[in-house]
Amino acid sequence: MTDLLKDTLTSQAQATTPPELDLDTIMATGSRRVRRRRVTAALGTTLAVAAVLGTTLTVVRSQQAEPPVLGPSTGERPPTYAANGVIHSGDKTVNTGRRDLDQLAQNNFGFFYTVKDSDEVHFHDGTEDSRISASKADGAKLRAAGDYLVSTAQTNGSFNTTIENLRTEKEILNTDKVANDPDAASRKVDYLFALDREYAYLKENGGVVRQPLTGKKEVTAEFRKAPTIPLAAGANRLVFIGPDQQIFVAGDLAKPEREQALQKYSGTPDQIDIGISDNGSYVMVAPKGQRPALYDVNGAKYPITSPQPLVFGQWLSDDTFAAVTAASAGRPVDLFRCVVTSGKATCQVTKKAIATSNAQVVFPNR
Q1: What residues have CB less than 8 Å from 74, skipping those under 6 apart?
Q2: Does residue 113 contact residue 131 with C-beta atoms inside 8 Å?
Q3: N or C: which end of the chain has fewer CB within 10 A?
Q4: Could you read off the pLDDT of 3-14 as tens digits, one per residue?
Q5: Cα-Cα-Cα-Cα dihedral of 39, 41, 43, 46, to 10°?
Q6: What DSSP string describes 286-341?
Q7: Which contiguous run of DSSP H or E holds residue 150?
Q8: Is the pLDDT reported for residue 150 higher than 90?
Q9: For the domain bounded by 3-362, which CATH number is listed?
């Protein structure tokens, strides 16, 4: 690590607001800290998820009072995606030198990714590309956000998940330590299913825990209806598969009994993509191979208008999202910007032919 980067990270760590990823700064200075970490992909497998059917949900939240909806969005972000081995973040590009990326994760230090037919995890800081892990757990998912990185190791059929603050080099959570702590004997962490700048969302004790990354104390709140499989969380919302394979959204974690049914889903959790908008106003439900469905937090379904069938990419703000053209033989993939207003989403092409017809476009994991 250069002295300039070390001084920069020290000053940024003292700031009250975590900085956004500045790709120009990363390209100019580089970052070596992440390469010293043994990083594997995050989350358990579908078998671990399936074992929670019929359990009771518990949510853990901070003692501080929180509004049902987060504050105003800081503004619309440019889309971030990978196509043909090149990572695009706004008008910046990072060439990985590899053809097909399989998974992508992003935090303040750069990009983490895997390639098809390989268990190796790579890190790119905007200057160099390096392998940071010999392998990842089969079927696992990369997770990174803010200054945080999630690692999951598999030993004797069980998973140990750790969350580290790369800026302070401190371990925030270690599920093995939780399990072996006499003061936390009642806690049993199954797996992590979501991460953002403030919280880790864990399947625990047959329920769901929202773990503050700042180490604040926690209190519990119970759901009246037990979800079977949690799918996504963020912006004070939780999306889960409940009884009868029905997808629900809990619109306020402080009052989790207020849940709304969205749609039926009979597939496995790894075959569906869920996107929660920045402030939690909208939820995108996107089963693989099917058109995405857009809902508000009250369960109302919004039509999506576009000139071509689309695949959901990522939320760019609380009311805009990115999408790409659905796969079609012989037709290049286009990038769309979609705006939610007046009870519907309207999509327009912002960049044509971002990938060839047989190439996969990968957006960062949530």
Answers
A1: none
A2: no
A3: N
A4: 433 443 344 444
A5: -150
A6: EETTS--EEEETTS-EE-EE-SS-EEEEEESSSSEEEEEEPP-TT--EEEEEEEEE
A7: strand 148-155
A8: no
A9: 2.130.10
